[in-house]
Amino acid sequence: MTPILLLGKDGQVGWQLQRSLAPLGSVTAAGRGECDLADPDRLRELLRALRPKIIVNAAAYTAVDRAESEPELALRINAQAPGVLAEEAKALGSLLVHFSTDYVFDGRKATPYVEADATNPLSAYGRSKLAGEQAIAAAGCRALIFRTSWVFGARGNNFVKTILRLARDGRALRIVDDQVGAPTPAAMISSVTGLVLAALRRGDALADGAHLYHLAAANPVSWCGFARAIVEDAARTPGFSGLPAPESIAAITTADYPLPAPRPTNSRLDCTRLEADFGLEMPDWRPYLNRMLQLLALKSANGY
């Protein structure tokens, strides 16, 4: 069986990837305890011991605001570590799969971003992720880089869980309405990654170099629109109660809610290239939200 190394097994996407990668080979899943991306020597040691044919990097420094005060650590994990992975993948003749972000753009474009658009990250986090893309490209290994946006899922911390917690606490919700993007389920990212790898296994080998794709759900929405959808769908899900009406969530501007790290106002990603190359169609995020809410309600009912 094809040896596969998955890094970031405990994150939102990494947790889902353990399921999606299982039919494709023999998966070794590592978390921070097994391999800290801030330690390049340990990273090289692990790769040379396992000699995987596919390396999937779902690990990252994702504390967007904290990165403004820890830019060196963000660069070490999001840029230098992917560079090490790419160098080792090149030496092993392996395929590297890496996940990037909409934060590589400044959000000033009026239409969805395509892969060829100029990058201009506004934050330390965005700069570190762009540097990771560039390090992979410079190494010349076979690589798939998936840029995604606004990730959510039942595991880990994310916007959906934050909104549910605040709503249950009776907090007045004021949510930014002038930033638009596509909430993208971790389960969808995982499934698409598995489908792409399966397609590559059936077809021709991927050419050398980094192949960049946008991977995001259909039907973009503002953060405020997303928050309203969360409480609306939760109110219809058995197990949730005492939630505010969606229309009670106040729409505010980015200027009304300043944060240490600037966010792009337009995070929409055009996924046409991915859909065309692999015969896929990006699904709507809302059914995934409904399934997530059902799972959270079930876990709560069973005391998990």
CATH class reads Alpha Beta
- What is the oligomeric state here? single chain
Q: Write the element-wise H/E pattern from the N-terminal end onward.
A: EHEHEHEHEEHEEEHEEHEHH
Broad structural category: alpha/beta
Tell me, briefly, the overall form. Answer: globular
Kindly, what is the distance between the CA atoms of the first and last residues, rounded to a whole number of angstroms?
A: 35 Å
Radius of gyration, rounded?
19 Å
Poorly predicted ranges: none
Amount of beta strand: 15-25%
| CATH superfamily heading | NAD(P)-binding Rossmann-like Domain
Q: Helical element count?
A: 9
* Helix percentage range: 40-55%
CATH topology descriptor: Rossmann fold
Write out key terms for the chains shown.
single chain; 304 residues; alpha/beta; Rossmann fold; six-stranded parallel β-sheet; two-stranded parallel ribbon; 9 helices; 15% strand
Task: Write a brief structural summary.
By secondary structure, the protein is α/β, with parallel strands linked by helices. It is about 40% helix and about 15% strand.
Q: In terms of topology, how is this protein built?
A:
Layout: E1 3-7, H1 12-21, E2 26-30, H2 40-50, E3 54-57, H3 71-92, E4 95-101, H4 124-139, E5 142-148, E6 151-152, H5 159-168, E7 174-176, E8 180-181, E9 184-185, H6 186-202, E10 210-214, E11 221-222, H7 223-235, E12 250-252, H8 272-278, H9 286-301
Parallel strand pairs: 1-2, 1-3, 3-4, 4-5, 5-10, 6-9, 7-12
Antiparallel strand pairs: 8-11
